[in-house]
Design goal:
GMP Synthetase, Chain A, domain 3, elongated, alpha+beta, 125 residues, three-stranded mixed beta sheet, 4 helices
Length: 125
């Protein structure tokens, strides 16, 4: 039951964060291709890990988000009804890159398998 509460709260914070970063944070270092891919709130509600993905320069984006952390936290407090506003921890999300890497590996294995089948078929003839 409690985990459902944390999941709901995480999604609410994620929605608010996305809106705040897109419309209120005016830092040019934050790329337009940046997205919040996930939020995990701890059980004591003291910390929220925010997973950030960016197709351009993730390091610059993370630095910009760190510098705007106080403003973002204050805005979350205005938009999300909570007694305790968690400390925000911005983290790099590499899941997209890992997914692309795995997809390339799968494509390579399929291609090698097709080449082996063609070579086997030619050898039998």
């Amino acid at each position: 039951m409690a985990s459902r509460r944390y999941n709901r709260l995480s999604e609410e914070i994620k929605r608010a964060l996305s809106d705040i970063i897109r419309s209120d944070v005016k830092d040019p270092r934050i790329s337009e291709l940046m997205s919040i891919t996930g939020v995990q709130v701890t059980e004591d509600l003291k910390f929220a890990k925010i997973y950030v993905s960016d197709y351009k320069d993730i390091d610059t984006t993370l630095i910009a988000l760190e510098s705007a952390k106080g403003f973002i936290k204050r805005e979350i407090g205005k938009r999300v009804k909570m007694r305790i506003i968690p400390e925000l921890i911005f983290m790099r999300d590499d899941s997209i890159e890992r997914g692309l890497h795995i997809s390339k590996l799968i494509d390579k294995v399929i291609e090698e398998d097709n080449v082996r089948k063609v070579n086997t078929d030619n050898a039998e003839e």
